[in-house]
Amino acid sequence: MNSQNPSSAEVEDGTRANEVRGAVRSTLQLGGSLMVTYAIALGIRALMPRYLGPEAFGYFNWSEAFAATFFVATNLGLETYIRKEVPVRPEHASDFFGTTMLLRLAMTLILMVALALVLHHTGEPPEVQHLVQWFALAQSLIVVNASMAALLHSKGKVAGLSVSNVITKIVWGGGLALMAALGVGIQWLAVPMVASEAVKLVISWRLAKVHLGLKFRIDITATKKVMKACLPFFLTAAALACNGRTDMSLLGKLASKEEVGWYGGAFSIAGLTFLISPIFGWVLMPMMSRAASRSPQELSHLTRRSLEGVLAFTVPVMMAMVLGADLWVRLMCGPGFEPAALPLRVLSPIFVMAYVTMVSSIWLTMSNKEWWVTLAATMGAVVNPLLNLALIPFFYGRIGPSGGATATALSMFFTEVIVTVLFLSRMGRNSFDRRSLVMVAKTAVVCVVCVALDRFLAGSVAAWPRLGLTASTYVVGVLVTGAIRPAELLQVVRMARQRGNPAPSEVVVTATPTV
């Protein structure tokens, strides 16, 4: 008997294909908005050091880091929980959203009072105290907006969010540029961030109501269950936030705010390598959640290929940062920030490892090994400040300007190495297969050749042409060796051009006649 009805396997294959097409389109939509927002951020990153100078820029970075560390508790671990659970049951969002919003509001009020008391007794200048408080208010909005964005990413509705990202970044960047033009005091420089996050919250709430039918209701019983499930995610987020923020706080206390300014300049440049990091939470995590619900094998396959893509993007950017550190510091930060070049070179490799740990942590979370992520992140949060306490006094003043900043960069580097090794060791063969290991080996050889070429040309060729020749060598090298496969990139582009995202029941397949 012949049948034209698709089999369950064919429908499942069609569902996967639709998910991939949807993920690629979401990536391109969000990536487009990221390009615009990063262009604005790039301009601001170049403006602020020049406007403030090393010491005031150090106060600016220290204030933001201090406020973010203080408000770590408001994260609740909710963002990761949403990206794990909501993609497979969107209606669940309304069970906990209203109660967690009220909980965060209460925590914010308590923390704002506590922060004011701490700042009063630390003896920081009044304008810095005001700046920290504005940053704290912005941080409370950032945390809520992250959860709202996670809901929309889990549903795959990102077009409106992409527009929102651009609008709010214009509000932030335009506000800062205006304040710089008016010459306002440092205490007001966080106000544009508060305004932009408030606008984003209004837009995100509207989008969530439209696309998820999100309702604001109080369900304490359901929220208690969610909070229990969020515990490992919360501890992980708290550890990661402290790991990335306490370093500036310690540097400011153990060295000087000028060292914080140099470190902040280096960090802001190196942070540009995080261009695609939001895609991991916005697109990859919901996609891996659905893959995990089908089979561990599919999850591992997706993880390996994602790690390949991560390395293909981050390694050349890292090489450009390391080899052109002096150029980037002059271009982005201006006079007075020359000492930031050394910490920039130390920081650059960290972001390759950070991307690897992002993908690894998603695999561990989807494999119900979230406590391992918490353990590794907590270990990093303990090791990093200990290294700072040991290295900052040793290097500060011994190697000249930026000694303290370089010590902080080294502390983060060693911490990231430890965390990356822990993650990959727990994943085992789920991280890299033979194909990806060959890709890593070929890329490493090309990197060694590029470094050797740069050293050979140093002194005889100007900086910018030398960097261009090295970049060309890298591109030719990865293509000739097959470390990067252009055919696969073209396949992704063709997939992105396919329009429509039919539901699984609408997938058109050619059924093989069966008897």
From TrEMBL:
Pfam families to which the protein is assigned, alphabetical: Polysacc_synt_3
Subcellular location: Cell membrane
Topology relative to the membrane: Multi-pass membrane protein
InterPro entries reported in the protein's UniProt record: Poly_Biosynth_Transport
Residue ranges of the TM segments: 30-48, 60-82, 102-119, 131-152, 159-182, 266-285, 306-324, 344-364, 371-396, 402-424, 436-457, 463-484
Keywords noted in UniProt: Cell membrane, Membrane, Transmembrane, Transmembrane helix
GO CC term, one of those recorded: plasma membrane
Name of the protein: Flippase
